[in-house]
Amino acid sequence: MGERSMAHIAIPSDDEFATTFGVASRSVDGEDAVRQIVLESGRDVVTLVADLPGASVRLVWRRDDVVLLDLFREAVEQVAIVDEDGATRLVATSALAGYRGELIIQIFPRVRVEDRQLIV
To answer: Which among 10, 21, 81, 118 counts the fewest CB atoms within 10 Å?
Structure first.
């Protein structure tokens, strides 16, 4: 997988984002270590910002300019594109001592967000 990696968070490459979603990620405020991708699906707009050295992601989901979800996650190890069972998702996996988590952001066929936190 062509991942961009710094510290311990890995995200898909711009080519992977462009191939899957039709748009590439872009740097935020000229910082290549902070990447943002804005995805549209119908009336929904999903913005994902990944701070690579900070190992964090922020997800903002809007519908018709109304914020439905604004979520921040730390200790992220990887953001991956998963395309299976007729759905396309971004999956952010995280881990801290004693727990593992998955933030699953389905983009197509419609936006849906799942957050799983497990004690290990």
So the answer is: 118
- C-beta separation of 9 from 50 below 8 A: yes
Q: Which string of DSSP letters, residue by residue, matches 16-68?
A: HHHHHHS---EEETTEEEEEEEEEEETTEEEEEEEETTTTEEEEEEEETTEEE
Rounded Cα distance, 67 and 103, in Å: 18
19 φ, ψ to 5°?
-65, -40
The encoded tokens of residue 22 equal 């039709």
Residue 86 Cα to chain centre, angstroms: 19
Model pLDDT for residues 74-93, shown as the tens digit of each residue? 999 999 999 999 999 999 99
CA angle 52, 58, 61 (to 5 degrees): 145
Indicate whether this model's pTM tops 0.85.
yes
Q: What angle do CA 100, 39, 92 make, to 5 degrees?
A: 10
